[in-house]
Amino acid sequence: MLPLCRKRERHLLTNPSRAAFLMTEKHSPVICDQISAMIIISGGEMNATELSETELKNLKESLLFQKSAILNKTHEFKVEQSSIPTVADEAEAASQDISNNISIHLHERDRTALYAIERALSKISDGSYGQCESCGEIINSRRLQARPFTALCVDCMEETESHSNLFQ
User: What's the N-to-C CA distance of the chain in angstroms?
Assistant: First the structure.
């Protein structure tokens, strides 16, 4: 059995809850013993972020504000969609159709953002906020402040975008 790489060791030391999850997965007893030893050596529970309590509180408030704004937009979208007037002119109908398509597209984008906000809020509550979902590294605090509901670090996001650009 190969020992854990340095990057994985650093990740597990900063996130013991992930280490516990790994120990319940399909890993050998050798790796589980290494993980347990790292947690004991590191002193147990550590935060997944490099943010202070006040920064984390501010980010949570920002996420809640964004969530509220999106929910208000959703209500307005539903009202707007239920009261679409009938038009007689073909040009007005085409314009109305384009306007509706844009509204639907923006609504879908807001729904995606709302989902990401909900995930970020749940991560704050379980203590794993600020950890990249792809590589497990800590996301830079400046990135979290710029985009509080991000799930990937800059490197992983760039890699994801480069892969998606290949298929377009």
Answer: 41
